[in-house]
Amino acid sequence: MSARIVPRSDDTSRDVPDPGLLVQKHVKYIQELDTRHDDLEYWHTEHLRLSGLYWGLTALHLLGHPKALPREEVIDFVLSCQHPSGGFGAAPGHDAHMLYTVSAVQILATLDAFDVLDERGHGGRGRTGQFIRNLQDPISGAFFGDEWGEVDTRFLYGALNALSLLGQLSWIDLSAAIDYVQACANFDGGYGLSPGAESHAGQTFTCLGALAIAGRLDLVDLDKSGRWLSERQTERGGLNGRPEKLEDVCYSWWVASGLAMIGRLHWIDGPRLRDFILKCQDDETGGIADRPGDLVDVFHTVFGIAGLSLLHYPNLEEVDPV
User: Fold this and answer.
1) What is the DSSP letter of 246?
2) Which helix (H) or strand (E) holds 296?
3) Distances in whole angstroms, Cα of residue 129 to Cα of each of 68, 98, 132, 150, 161
4) How far apart are the first and last CA of the chain?
5) Distance (Å, whole) CA 4 – CA 275
6) DSSP letter for each residue of 269-293
């Protein structure tokens, strides 16, 4: 059977045959990720463990299987990654960092478990919010990733995302953060990781997402940004992160979500993108790879599924593009 993207006002859907989304295989693939302790890859990716848990959990929710991972065990692991500072590391024993703190907050929000953080965490959600607030640069408005001072718009977006979930967005200098995002805008409509840096689809997502959370998408040149993002679609139907680069499933999220935020998702060929994502599935093990025939991983699995959700693929939960 062929599948159809649910028609909507901003979409130019048409019937295109596809192999179908392998829901049960993807669920099993995610459930088994933490059982592969004998695989070298498992230990090589320890620095991504907490974010990987968020990616898997999000994929399962989008697939309609929110209880496929044991809730209490997930919460216990998240709390085991917390530092007395209120921040979270990638795994127990790892330094606290903005990215993993954001993943922890997102997991706890998904599981409706902020009360557990208040009861069992270091200082509750207040200390976590304080950890994030302390990473804002008072001069530029940007955010550091950790105490060592690396600056990247990923950290700024993550800070706004987490604080909005915690109900603490007023704790930071939001105007300064918005000004920093505006300084990262380029002439072509894209955004870089810092002022003057090359436009990149991932960084464009973070900047548009930050402005959306702040309620300031009015600052965006919608057509110019929409044009740059829509030009990321390649002949194979997938999306790339920069001009002259190969398509990659993860940009099914970074690019398409940016377009959705600014009301320009219909500027790309949705059915061709859908077909590209589905061709990247492993029909034996489950999971989704960056490109057809490559090895799968949970990172590309969640962003491939999220991309399909943006395209209103049947029977997926709706994802918020921000």
Assistant:
1) P
2) strand 296-297
3) 29, 11, 5, 19, 11
4) 32
5) 11
6) -HHHHHHHHHHTB-TTT--EESSTT
Q: How far is 98 from 154, CA to CA, in rounded Å?
A: 9
Alpha helices in the chain (DSSP H): 23-31, 40-44, 49-62, 71-80, 98-110, 114-120, 124-133, 153-166, 174-183, 201-213, 222-230, 251-261, 270-279, 298-310
Q: What is the pLDDT of residues 95-120, one digit of tens each?
A: 999 999 999 999 999 999 999 999 99
In sequence order, what DSSP letters do the residues of 51-91 get, joined into one string?
A: HHHHHHHHHHHHTT-TTSS-HHHHHHHHHHTB-TTS-B-SS
Distance separating alpha carbons of residues 234 and 294, to the nearest angstrom: 18
Amino acid at 6: V
Residue 4 in 3-state DSSP?
coil
* CA-wise closest residue to 26 among 54, 68, 82: 68
Q: Give the per-residue pLDDT at 43.
A: 58
- Unique residue bearing structure tokens 């090589």: 44
